[in-house]
Automatic annotation (TrEMBL):
It comes from the Bacteria. InterPro entries: Ice-binding_C (IPR013424). Residues 124-148 form the Ice-binding protein C-terminal domain. The lineage of its organism: Bacteria, Pseudomonadati, Pseudomonadota, Betaproteobacteria, Burkholderiales. This is PEP-CTERM sorting domain-containing protein. It comes from Massilia rubra.
């Protein structure tokens, strides 16, 4: 394995907190995402760890989390850990004058990962036929050069 990556699109929504009449309310919304990606080999231990944090996403955000070039053989374990936190603090609608506060209103906050894709990069391993063709080609070139010198 020569490397790996995870890509996709994060989609977050932060609902606007407004009171009747369009005035800002005293509530709050927040979204946060943390993603950890790592590779581990029993022989050498952890060989690659990556982390990314995103917060206050309102809309789409493409992301790529990729390892540095690696040279791993044998047993390799990949791990991905993802934590999403979405919070919304309510606010009270205004009550009647000199009366109790109105009902609590929670706004919408959301966070999603769309189309996550794990890609593992490996180097190509030539087939035995490839080596045979390489040797045959070198033999033909050698014979052609030998004929030129003899002539």
């Amino acid at each position: 394995m020569t490397g790996f990556s995870v890509s996709g699109t994060m989609f977050g929504g932060l609902g606007a907190i407004t009171e009747p009449g369009g005035l800002p309310g005293n509530g709050n919304t927040k979204n946060t995402m943390r993603m950890d990606l790592g590779a581990y080999t029993p022989a050498t231990g952890s060989v690659s760890d990556m982390r990314v944090d995103y917060s206050m996403i309102d809309g789409k955000l493409p992301f790529v989390l990729a390892s540095t070039p690696l040279s791993l053989t044998g047993e390799v374990s990949l791990s991905m850990w993802n934590m999403v936190t979405v919070t919304s603090w309510p606010y009270n609608l205004p009550g009647y004058p000199d009366g109790p506060p109105g009902q609590l209103v929670y706004t919408l906050a959301s966070m999603q990962v769309l189309n996550p894709t794990l890609t593992i990069y490996t180097s190509a391993v030539p087939e035995p036929e490839t080596y045979a063709m390489l040797l045959a080609g070198m033999a033909v070139i050698g014979l052609a050069r030998r004929r030129r010198r003899a002539a």
